[in-house]
Amino acid sequence: MRFCEVFMWSWIKGLLGNYQGEQVSKPVAPIVDSTTSATVNNVLQIPAIWECVNKITRAMSCLPMDVLKYVDDEGNTELVKDGTLHYLLAVSPNAHMTPADFIKTITVDYLLHGNAYVRIDRAVGADYIAALTPLASGQVKPILDNGTVVYKYLTDKDREVIYSSDEIMHWKGIGNGLIGLSTVDFARSSLTEAVAAQNASIDMFRNKGKLNGILSADTPLINKKQADDFLDRFREMKQAPIGIPLLPSGFKFQSLSLSPADTQLLQTREFIVKEFSRWFGIPYGLLTGDAPELVDLSNYFYETTILPMCIELEQIIRQKVVRDDRYTVKFRTSVLKRMSDQTRISMQTSYAQNGLRTRNELRREDGYKWIDGADELTAQNNLYPLDKLGESDASQTPQTPLSEQPIKQ
Q: Which helix (H) or strand (E) holds 40?
């Protein structure tokens, strides 16, 4: 299907409709004329966009991904520390990237283009995955062909390669289910406004705040040469690094430039930061770092932006990479909510004393080595009815295992 036909069908059915052929992630037409081109080179030069993308990618890349194996029919799991899946997701997805590099790469594509593509490289003559290789989002196009999705990849040598859906892991943002909508393309109006404000600020400082305007005389000048000589003299005075130009008697200057206060330049640039914080789902206070409720904003950011992204990525990895009902993958999102030592210790103490977690589970969260005898759930038993005081077993400690066997403290 030709490109013009694709846009025709996307216009008729809408971007969220189902249509055959190449899927479209961009607006059919911008709502504002003459908008700035939405390339990665352009958008990442806007400080607010850079910071939004940087914060989200770093938050995602710091999350360890665990491979878990189901041990019963009730959904209980155990951690897998070896095997192909563990090596790919927790050690080295490919020969050139660490897991953090891999997550950052695909997260940038997801945030900017609404789509991240990963080629699943299987070992020759074997039924296991040898590598996961990110593909540049701008070089991949999903195509719906009679109910089957294939992916057309344009290599750096302008050669087209067609991949089946089994060979591509496609992480999609909001869209029609086949392709995500491109954030930067839909934000072109906001991007254009940001570029215009940036240019206005640069022009003002480049001209050292000097104003432009009209120079008028109370009486007509004798001839054109006299007028040109005076204008040349005025330009020299205006361009002087210091000093105040003095006009001869009878001349007036009327400014045509707007001052930064008149254009509300500072307020406009602050609004632009707020605008892009909405586009990328980051509370404004987290970008500036000066909000009094940073802890609450952080929790809100984790719950409404990072956690949904983690769940989406877990699901597509299970579908395309794991493909085995005996195993699952899960981001260890608990590391996002690192709190003060005092608060964390108090919470962990409550978990241990009320039988919610074992001590080894709590040690694992803090990066400590597991120890023998700390895998039992425990609960307090030092509260007794008054008429039964003195009847407790002296061998029992204040932390008694739920299995009724004492453990090491």
A: helix 40-43
Phi, psi dihedral angles at 318 (to 5 degrees) = -65, -40
Specify whether the CB–CB gap between 185 and 26 falls below 8 A.
Answer: yes
Do 145 and 162 contact (CB within 8 A), yes or no?
Answer: no
Which residues partner with 21 through β-bridges? 144
Q: What one-character DSSP code corresponds to residue 63? A: S
**For residues 203-213, average pLDDT:** 63
CA 395 to mean position of chain CA atoms? 54
Task: List the domain boundaries for the chain.
Answer: 1-210+260-338, 212-256, 341-401
First to last CA, the chain: 69
Look at the block and give the residue holding tokens 């040598």: 157
On the CB side of 392, CA atoms within 13 Å amount to: 16
Please say if the pLDDT value at position 264 is more than 80.
no
* Angstrom distance (rounded) from CA 155 to CA 133: 14
In this structure, of 17-26, 79-88, 254-263, 319-328, the range with the lowest mean pLDDT score is 254-263
**CB atoms closer than 10 angstroms to residue 334:** 11
Helix (H, G, I), strand (E, B) or coil at 247: coil
Tokens of 14: 């809408």
How far is Cα 291 from Cα 260, in angstroms, rounded to an integer?
Answer: 26
The two most distant CA atoms of the chain are separated, in Å, by 119
The whole-angstrom separation of Cα 170 and Cα 265 is 41
How far is it, in rounded angstroms, from Cα 122 to Cα 127? 7
Which pair of tokens denotes residue 167?
Answer: 């060979």
Q: Which residue has the higher pLDDT, 160 or 353?
A: 160
Q: Which pLDDT belongs to residue 309?
A: 96
Q: Residue 135: beta bridge partners?
A: 117
Read off the pLDDT of residues 343-379 as tens digits, 9 standing for 90 and up: 777 888 888 888 888 888 888 777 677 788 888 888 8
- Give the separation between CA 396 and CA 382, rounded to whole angstroms: 9
Q: What is the DSSP code string of 249-299?
A: TTEEEEE-SPPHHHHTHHHHHHHHHHHHHHHHT--HHHHHS--TTHHHHHH
Strand order, beta sheet including 140-145: 21-22, 140-145, 148-154, 160-164
CA distances from 205 to 75, 200, 269 (A): 63, 9, 15
pLDDT band at 182 (very low <50, low <70, confident <90, very high): very high
